[in-house]
Write a structure and sequence with these properties.
Shape: globular
Distance between the termini: 29 Å
Strand content: 25-35%
Helix content: 25-40%
Order of helices and strands: EEEHEHHHEHE
CATH class: Alpha Beta
Strand order of the largest sheet: 5-4-1-2-3-6
Largest sheet: 6 strands, mixed
Radius of gyration: 15 Å
Number of domains: 1
Structural class: alpha/beta
CATH architecture: 2-Layer Sandwich
CATH superfamily: Ribonuclease H-like superfamily/Ribonuclease H
Length: 154
């Protein structure tokens, strides 16, 4: 049995609420190598960009990995760590208030990806000086403002 690669990941989303212009970004680190990517979408929300960043990060991994994913989104983290997704599935993709779960398409993608990868979810406060979180925040903001994708490998 081969051991899985251990990947550190940081993700963030950005959205201008008045225009609906959004950006997402991730940074992956493994054995001293880094890969970052950012992109943009129009007509979106901040929560969609937070989820998109996690989807893109996990989907970029070409083999099953052990991932420690750090996000500044409580919405993203708590869905996995506090059983929200389990309840939504049990309730037919409805919230406790019997409303349809927003972003169901992205949640479904994340469920598939977390079946492939073992993900440990961590949270950090945004804009608090956490180096990698500040990096992905800047990448997501830049992608949103420029409406240009970005990819870097080191």
């Amino acid at each position: 049995m081969t051991s899985r690669k251990r990947i550190q990941a940081w993700t963030d989303g950005s959205c201008e609420t008045q225009t609906g212009d959004g950006g997402w970004a991730y940074l992956l680190r493994h054995n001293g190598h880094e890969l970052s990517e950012a992109g943009h979408e129009t007509g979106t929300t901040n929560n969609r960009m937070e989820l998109t960043a996690a989807v893109k990060a996990l989907a970029s991994l070409t083999e099953a990995c052990d991932v420690t994913l750090t996000t500044d989104s409580q919405y993203l983290k708590k869905a996995f760590t506090e059983g929200w997704l389990t309840r939504w599935l049990r309730n037919g993709w409805q919230t406790a208030g019997r409303e349809p779960v927003k972003n169901q398409d992205l949640w479904q993608e994340l469920l598939v990806l977390t079946e492939r990868h073992h993900v440990e979810w961590r949270w950090t406060r945004g804009h608090s000086g956490h180096s990698e979180n500040e990096t992905v925040d800047k990448l997501a903001l830049d992608a949103r403002k420029r409406q240009q994708p970005f990819k870097s490998r080191s």
